[in-house]
Amino acid sequence: MDRDEELLRGRVYGQDHDDPRRGPQPGRDYGELVGGPLDGLLLDITGWTKGETETGVALPTELGHFGAGGRAMYDPRPGDRRRWDWSGDTP
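The structure corresponding to this sequence follows.
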């Protein structure tokens, strides 16, 4: 695991790497992003409806194939809303 990967592990998507609360917080629901540029990050799905947790998301990231302005696409794993699998990048 390289240094960049170490910085991402256990961190919540959207939180700055130097935020003292960058990890999961009590009382919140998270899905783990699996594979792709955001592998290991946690997606805060607190308050999402069942319908929202059954559809995919396109998360802005500079780490994907398209760089700045690109998005990494993740889909909930069937039968396991706690894992979101990478399905590719999009501009």
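Helices lie at 3-8.
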